[in-house]
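FYI - complex with 2-deoxy-2-amino glucitol-6-phosphate, inputs then prediction.
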Amino acid sequence: MCGIVGYTGSSSAAPYLLDGLKRLEYRGYDSAGIAVSDGEKISQARAKGRLQNLCDETNDGKSIVGTCGIGHTRWATHGAPTKSNAHPHMSNDGKFAVVHNGIIENFAELREELISEGFVFHSETDTEVVAHLLEKYYDGDFKRTVLKTINRLEGSYALGIVCIDFPNEVMTVKLASPLIVGVGVGENFFASDVTALISHTRNVMYLDDGEFASITPDKITVYDCMGAEISKKITHINWSMEAAEKGGYDHFMLKEIMEQPNALKATIEPRVKDGKIVLDDVKLGAAELKNIRNIVITACGSAYHAGCVGKYLIEELARIPVQIDVASELRYRNPIIDEHTLLIAVSQSGETADTIASIKECKARGARTLAIVNVVDSTIAKISDDVLYTWAGPEIAVATTKGYTTQVAVFSLLALYFADELGRISEERYKELYNGIRNIPERCQRAIDLNNKVRDLAKKYSPKDSLFFIGRNLDYAACLEASLKLKEISYIHSEAYAAGELKHGTIALIEEGRLVIALACYHDLFDKLMGNIKEVKARGARVLGVAVEGNRKILAEADDTIFIPETDQLLSTIPETIPLQLFAYYVALENGCDIDKPKNLAKSVTVE
Ligand code: AGP
């Protein structure tokens, strides 16, 4: 996601824009830019890297003249984080500048059409098509031009637009991406969220999807998607600044848990087209796979747990042997790697030292490398042969949530893609899983709707002592992540255990009142798992079950059960993880822990 801001009033616009962008840096921070109109020209300033570079380049905005402008802080999606890809983007005739948060799904055909009509592109972004469409449709009427332009766009967008012929007017448009309008006195604003406005005004208008607004210093006119003027109520914001940065949630972690449906949609949708999975420009089709004898997955922490899910999926569907190892082990165990090995490195930050070292070690031994990362142009993305990005957007909380689930989503896509490329899956089963993957965001939203029930269960069980997560197959992989989530934010010890292995020693720790959370979503092994629940119940354990809705058998043994939305057993890891993220969150809340910044932890471990 990115952040956009706009200002029009009697003051110099640039300092307002930079101040607003500072408040939005958590939404994206790999490049930034502003465009300001002074009635004669539009001045554009852009910089790669953190916003401070732009502030330095413009002397904190003092070098840019004009009282009407737009600004953008970028989280790269289409095109690397470079100055030429930074927003705002200009029309060829210099009359328009535009900033954008979202994804223009049909940008490729629009780009082709515009190039064929003689427009010249200067970036790799999807956004630039908007600037040229504005020029194409401009007939002297700003509003009509904007309406014609947005009628050509498909996808999600919050847009900010300035036109040199309307020197004190900004236009802003909303479809699927967040946008609000700030109502000042003799000055008005727009922004991606309230944090960028709250220090200037607490009176805002929330635009709805399809609406757009003409904003001048003394007037805000809102139009519906047909261009008819509509009235909007003004809301007074009484959040603190800190609450506003978290979108009204108490913690970034909870905000990011709630963002998962959108993060998953952004990760999956660009890769499913007309019934087939399309994996960007990754060069791992049938021809390349014929040269791969084994896959090695390496990562750390939660990314490693996503890899554990990936191992099950790739072996089950593509029938390629997969080893998995934490990066700190792989790099030092003299691994058997050669040119027939595909190394899949997983990392949210793309900067984890052990993972980077493992990639280099395996490349030196001839492996082909594929990275699954969240940060565009991060070190791991740059040193790998192929990259599949998780479009989760910036993740602020140290404990990953959307970073992990989007990694699992990418593994689901990859496993199915490999199976299809190698001809190892029936058309019917492919279609089942293809549709199942597309439904993941909706299942995830329904799992999030369990929030209140999970909060009550966290209070009811409120573990103070060590507890166990048990499961089989993919449920066991999900246990690993659930256990880490609880440990790292509540500081309560827990252990993830393969349910069938418990009886080989560790069951000695099960005693009266011990909490065991049993993941029972993997349908084919449900009866076996029920046997394991009986084993621990017989020794006095309290069992909190996680099962698929409609499976009433578990009620015979579990003390309480969280029912997740029905989904294919190969795809249940994400919906079943959501309530376990929430469980960890509410237990940590009960314990008064610093949820977003747990003790001893860092968001990215860039040292050994
Ligand atoms: C996840 O909640 C932890 N903060 C940690 O295990 C993390 O997953 C691990 O350090 C790997 O980080 P990366 O994904 O950025 O490489």
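The pocket of 2-deoxy-2-amino glucitol-6-phosphate is lined by residues 300-303, 347-349, 352, 355, 398-400, 488, 601, 604-605 (CB under 6 Å). The two ends are 30 Å apart (CA to CA).
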